[in-house]
């Protein structure tokens, strides 16, 4: 949690997901609902962009927080 709130993420045109507010140095990963990792990076600052080539319901894990997005 960042300030007690779930870390927000947005799906962008062009096949990326932007995660906001993850702690610098924490790992951010994107998974399909079947558990396959499709993208991963380390947060550098308040806004981290991950390239994601698959569509559908995805799970974004930032540190201990997991959120669901639809791409």
List the helices and strands and how they pair.
Elements: E1 9-12, E2 16-20, E3 27-32, E4 37-42, E5 47-51, E6 57-62, E7 65-70
Antiparallel strand pairs: 1-2, 2-5, 3-4, 3-6, 6-7
What's a concise summary of this model?
By secondary structure, the chain is an all-beta fold. It contains no helices and seven strands.
Describe this structure in words.
By secondary structure, this protein is mostly beta strands. About 0% of the residues lie in helices and about 55% in strands. It has no helices and 7 strands. It has a 4-stranded antiparallel beta sheet, with no helix packed on it. Strands 1-2-5 form a 3-stranded antiparallel beta sheet, with no helix packed on it. A hairpin with a 4-residue loop joins strand 3 and strand 4. The N terminus is likely disordered.
């Amino acid at each position: 949690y960042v300030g007690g709130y779930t870390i927000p993420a947005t799906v962008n045109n062009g096949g990326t997901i932007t995660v906001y507010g993850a702690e610098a140095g924490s790992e951010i990963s994107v998974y399909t609902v079947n558990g396959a990792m499709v993208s991963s990076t380390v947060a550098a600052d308040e806004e981290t962009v991950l390239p994601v080539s698959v569509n559908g319901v995805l799970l974004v894990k930032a540190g201990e927080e997991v959120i669901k997005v639809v791409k």
